[in-house]
Design a protein that fits this description.
Number of helices: 9
Oligomer: single chain
CATH superfamily of the largest domain: Vaccinia Virus protein VP39
Number of strands: 10
Radius of gyration: 20 Å
Strand content: 15-25%
Number of domains: 2
Order of helices and strands: HHHHHEHEHEHEEEEHEEE
CATH topology of the largest domain: Rossmann fold
Shape: globular
């Protein structure tokens, strides 16, 4: 239980303390939070302090360095894992109707879901591929910094409370079936068919420090850049560019853009409304 003696409004966190925390994590575990957007990072640190009744960042640093299991939970708490099946249905409708027909002309193609969280986006893509007859052609990689959410993604199981939202989103993608065709409901949970993710490789990957590990025809890195500062955004855009084949496609979140990044001229808009871009230069 959270101690009533620690109130979020009473917690003071200075920039120097955030820097010390980020450096301690980088040194001990190799995770790099130094270029996360400061305001968002600070809010989440305060939330962690309050949740665990820890009275200072200094004590939090000690706990993180001394307790690897606590650090695993810290990563879960500090990273944003908000997602849903067919989030932004208009995006998936464009993927279905405009992008997949292009990829279908290739003998096979590779897809990377970067920062995939608990995997709803991966399941969404698998369903689209099934319905468009392309599932056998695709090799899919799904990565995240957080190993705990990767385990959840590999289970393909979600709370029943999300069912109506999932069905509504799916119905707005111009579907070719029913969502019930891909899952069953039991024990107050939605269990998706594990065959949907049979071709998916789940892999731990930190966009802030790791390099590219494969070449892809389509990369989805949606609703991630908003949590990075400009320096880290440029670093990640370069990583994503290097990970794409020439003529490959990059999808961002609705509130994200690569207009201001250093390599913006190496992409052209494929669908600006849905933030899908095509790599046109090496």
């Amino acid at each position: 239980m959270i101690s009533s003696s620690i109130n979020e409004n009473d917690i003071e966190v200075e920039l120097e303390e955030l820097n010390q925390l980020s450096q301690a994590i980088l040194t001990k575990y190799g995770y790099d939070f130094t270029n996360y957007a400061q305001s968002s990072f600070k809010r989440r640190i305060i939330m962690v302090l309050k949740k665990n009744s820890i009275k200072s960042v200094g004590l939090l640093i000690q706990k993180i360095v001394q307790d690897p299991k606590f650090f695993e939970q810290f990563v879960t708490d500090i990273t944003v894992n908000t997602t849903e099946l067919f989030r932004d249905p208009s995006f998936f409708r464009v993927v279905r109707e405009e992008l997949l027909p292009i990829l279908s002309n290739r003998p096979e193609f590779n897809i990377w879901h970067a920062a995939c969280s608990t995997g709803e986006e991966v399941i969404s893509m698998a369903i689209l591929l099934k319905e468009e007859g392309l599932w056998e052609k695709a090799k899919i990689y799904a990565t995240d910094i957080n190993t705990a959410v990767l385990k959840k993604a590999a289970e393909a199981r979600y709370p029943l409370r999300n069912w109506e939202l999932f069905k509504q989103n799916y119905s707005n993608t111009n579907p070719k079936g029913k969502l019930e065709d891909y899952c069953e409901i039991k024990d107050n949970e939605i269990q998706f068919d594990k065959d949907l993710i049979k071709n998916v490789r789940f892999k731990q990957h930190d966009l802030a420090v790791d390099q590219h590990f494969f070449k892809f025809d389509f990369i989805l890195c949606r609703n991630v850049m908003i949590y990075f500062n400009q320096k880290l955004q440029n670093r990640v855009f370069e990583l994503l560019h290097n990970s794409l084949f020439l003529g490959g496609y990059l999808a961002l979140g609705a509130k994200e853009s690569l207009i201001w990044c250093k390599i913006a001229d190496k992409f052209a808009a494929f669908n600006e409304n849905e933030k899908i871009y095509k790599k046109i230069k090496l």
